[in-house]
Amino acid sequence: MKVILRQSIPRLGSAGKVVTVSDGYARNYLIPRDMAYSVTKGNIKKAHFEAAKVQQEEQKQLEEKKKLASAIEGVSVTITARAAEEGKLFGSVNAQSIADALQEQGFTVDRNCIELDSPLKELGVFSVTIRFSHDLAAEIKVWIVKD
After folding, report:
1. Which of 64, 82, 113 is the last residue of a domain?
2. ∠ CA(102), CA(103), CA(108), 5° rounding?
3. Which class for 111: exposed (0-12), middle (13-18), buried (19 or more C-beta within 10 A)?
4. Which of 47, 64, 81 is the last residue of a domain?
5. Which end of the chain is less congested by CB atoms within 10 angstroms, N or C?
């Protein structure tokens, strides 16, 4: 079934594109959630208008992310945690802890943007990447000190 996307969907297409998907996916998921609508002459005209509007909004969000990435590049955050004598933490520092520390410094970052292979479990200085989009990232220093 051919549908017109109302918003950008990863691995499927961007807003305003006509894509072919299975009938069930279109009828049971995309159309009921107002993510797409069926292809008709009226809907094609409507899609061009909506696509331009969505594209402007995405461009605005990208500019905001670029400003935040340039402002956050090289920032250093300090997190205090309880630790044993050997430097091992009684717990761990995860992405949410880093997002909260950035929030205290005035940077609003979604915890899902913070890339950690695993939670940090020892004292020290760590470089952490914050990925805003597939080609836009910033690196910060996270200092974990003993409480």
Report:
1. 64
2. 95
3. middle
4. 64
5. C
The distance from CA 34 to its chain's CA centroid, rounded to whole angstroms, is: 22
Per-residue model confidence as pLDDT tens for the chain (147 residues):
999 988 888 889 888 888 999 999 999 999 999 999 888 888 888 887 877 887 888 899 889 999 989 999 989 999 999 999 998 999 999 999 999 999 999 999 999 999 998 999 999 999 999 998 878 999 999 999 998
- Tally the domains of the chain: 2
Spatial separation of the C-alpha atoms in residues 11 and 81, rounded to whole Å: 40
The answer on 139 and 115 residing in a single domain is yes
Reduced to 3 states (helix: H, G, I; strand: E, B; else coil), residue 102 is: helix
Predicted TM-score (pTM) of this structure: 0.68
Q: Are 123 and 89 in contact (CB under 8 A)?
A: yes
∠ CA(110), CA(13), CA(61), 5° rounding? 35
Which residue range(s) make up the domain with 38?
Answer: 2-64
